[in-house]
Amino acid sequence: MARITLDSVRKRYGETTAVNGVSLTVDDGEIVGVLGPSGCGKTTTLRTVAGFETPTAGTVAFDDQDVTNVPPENRNVGLVFQEYALFDNMTVGENVAFGLKMRGIAKAKRRKRATELLDMLGIGEMADRDPTTLSGGQQQRVGLARALAIEPNVLLLDEPMTGLDAKLKARLRDEVGELLSELDVTGLYVTHDQEEAMLMCDRIAVMNDGRMEQVGTPREVYESPATEFVSEFVSLDAPQLPFVQW
Amino acid sequence: MSVAPSRRFGRGLVTATLLLAVGFLMVPVVLTFVGSFAGEWSGVLPSEFITLQNWREVLGLAETIGSQRSMGWNAILSVGGYTLAVPSELIFSVALALGGVFINLVVGVPIAYAVARYDFRGDEWVNAISVLPLVPGVILGVAFLRAYPDLAGTSFGLIVGYSLLKAPFMVMAVRSEFESMPLQRLEESARSLGASWPRTFLTVIVPNARSGIVSGAIICWTLAAAEFNFSYIVWAKGTQPLALFLQRHISNSSFTKAAAAVSMFFCIIVVITVLLQQVGSRGFDTRG
């Protein structure tokens, strides 16, 4: 894992500015939640870290290495999407082993690694299944295993729980949160759900209109919001958060 | 327990309509197939069963009156008194239509991908142009002869023409398949896992769209094989395309012989469809 540094990243598409001077550091082993309403630039920020967007200005660095112009396939970044995006032409096990295959790792070894990861996520027996036969929660676990298999510098999660039912979401949130801290993963967790962000992330970055409004621990963001926007956005669901233990 | 009237009558009505429609469509096919084994078909129903003479004549295994050419049986192997022959001309004309499908695959899949995946200036135009050759074969045939007189009457000309005429069906089938999956997410997942773009396209994107590609190929092949107008205008000499072969056996022939020719056409279509499906499901299998 690595330390991720975004320095004054700006991204413009023609006349519109999607990301407007974002600076953020994610420490090694830390999970930072990027929280904000839709269209605030959080997904663009994530895509910039992954390498699918080249910033108009500013730099992205992994540890001390500037990766601003490194193509996505050479960044060693794990991606987990809301849509799962599993490869239907492969089994569950092959999905998980895909990244290792791209790195030229021998078949037996990548199979072993895939099985380990699937076991760790509690779906070890599904390695030979067709991913389309799995439930939403199971598919998301496969997506997570696939991203973790390459031992990424950073794990990027784009609304991974959206679309799952509340009960499953709560369970997966606990499990995945535990797993990520156990594995000491450096992660960016994009979500519009503040409850999810507060429970799963070490720090939260609140974004609005392409800018970082506040970066801090869940407690800081919740108790002393830096701007009016943060205060409004975060307090909206606050009564639902009595179970957050400080 | 009482069943809702809508359900009681509705289901029966739907089933009856379906059976009637399928029956109406299937009767001519079945009748033609049965008729191809008849010796006489002058009334409503064929008679004088069972003879294989019609099939022999259509397949070019029996001498026929006049100048009707056979299907070009070529002996490829002779052992003792037996000769193994293949209908080389038939195979060739099946291959003509398959050639068109091949061009459609190579050109149509990337176009469908580009239109489904990217917003670019003029994407609507590309989309419109790829669907534009949805013109009748006569029009394309005449235009084709004017523009490329050298290609007139050549097999290559026919193959290119078939691919142009049927390309829209490939683009539409594959595009809707691409649009039904999280194309960008799949691509980004594969890229982030270390696959280069070409590798992503060939090992993830194309295999994930296999059902659309296979159905596009089947539609294109069937339509190209049955394309009469374009073939009639462009074909000059040499091996006849399937549609012309069919026409030759329908005009100036007895009813029963026409039935055999049509039945043979059905059989070829079924065989090629099954083959394309098999190739489709196995060819994209990257397991192992």
Automatic annotation (TrEMBL), chain A:
PROSITE patterns recorded: ABC_TRANSPORTER_1, ABC_TRANSPORTER_2
Alphabetical UniProt keywords: ATP-binding, Molybdenum, Nucleotide-binding, Transport
Family matches, as Pfam families: ABC_tran
Chain ranges of the ABC transporter domain: 4-234
Topology in membrane: Peripheral membrane protein
GO cellular component, one term: plasma membrane
KW Kinase (keyword) present: no
Gene Ontology MF: a single term: ABC-type tungstate transporter activity
Function: Part of the ABC transporter complex WtpABC involved in molybdate/tungstate import. Responsible for energy coupling to the transport system.
Record-linked PANTHER family: SPERMIDINE/PUTRESCINE IMPORT ATP-BINDING PROTEIN POTA, SPERMIDINE_PUTRESCINE IMPORT ATP-BINDING PROTEIN POTA
UniProt-recorded name of the protein: Molybdate/tungstate import ATP-binding protein WtpC
Organism: Halopenitus persicus
From TrEMBL, chain B:
Transmembrane segments: 12-38, 90-113, 125-145, 151-174, 213-235, 255-276
Every ABC transmembrane type-1 domain range: 90-277
Biological-process GO terms, alphabetical: transmembrane transport
Subcellular location: Cell inner membrane; Cell membrane
Membrane topology: Multi-pass membrane protein
UniProt xrefs under CDD domains: TM_PBP2 (cd06261)
GO cellular component: plasma membrane
PROSITE patterns: ABC_TM1
Main location (coarse class): membrane
Keywords of this entry: Cell inner membrane, Cell membrane, Membrane, Transmembrane, Transmembrane helix, Transport
UniProt family annotation: Belongs to the binding-protein-dependent transport system permease family.
Name of the protein described by the UniProt record: Putative spermidine/putrescine transport system permease protein
Taxon lineage: Archaea, Methanobacteriati, Methanobacteriota, Stenosarchaea group, Halobacteria
